[in-house]
């Protein structure tokens, strides 16, 4: 998805008159999530969140039933695939799109000295959680 599409979707969701709520968390350390807006259109839930990861924090290993589209607004996010290889380093202004499904297990960390802030729009099947917890892969012991 192009950045302009992401921003248009985010603006549409933010324009809705929806009360903020707390985002559900995956097994993590130093992660805070805040739901900014939610909308249900057809068979999809659109959930706009602000996710903050403290220095040294991690999301834990997980996957998404839907598709998250994000933009880093502060700090740096280091992203790992299921083989524990770094598959992306994202800085402020960078966009991030993650595939959906249990075939894309991953984890993200903030290895920097300042909080990392991510605005993420989740496009999920109705009623799905933002993420699904999974056990850490064997290679995670080396991280």
Automatic annotation (TrEMBL):
Pfam families assigned: Cupin_2
Cited InterPro entries: Cupin_2 (IPR013096), RmlC-like_jellyroll (IPR014710), RmlC_Cupin_sf (IPR011051)
Keywords: Signal
Signal sequence bounds: 1-23
Signal found in the keyword field: yes
Domain Cupin type-2 as annotated: residue spans: 50-121
Protein name: Cupin domain-containing protein
């Amino acid at each position: 998805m192009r950045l302009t599409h992401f921003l248009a979707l985010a603006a549409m969701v933010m324009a809705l008159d929806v009360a903020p709520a707390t985002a559900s968390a995956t097994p993590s350390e130093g992660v805070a999530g805040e739901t900014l807006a939610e909308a249900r259109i057809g068979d999809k839930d659109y959930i706009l969140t602000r996710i903050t990861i403290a220095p040294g924090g991690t999301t834990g290993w997980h996957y998404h039933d839907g598709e998250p589209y994000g933009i880093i607004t502060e700090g740096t996010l280091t992203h790992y695939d299921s083989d524990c290889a770094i598959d992306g380093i994202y800085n402020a202004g960078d966009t991030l799109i993650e595939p959906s499904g249990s075939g894309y297990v991953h984890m993200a960390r903030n290895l920097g000295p300042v909080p990392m802030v991510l605005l993420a729009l989740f496009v999920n099947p109705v009623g799905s959680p933002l993420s699904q917890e999974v056990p850490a892969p064997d290679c995670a012991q080396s991280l």
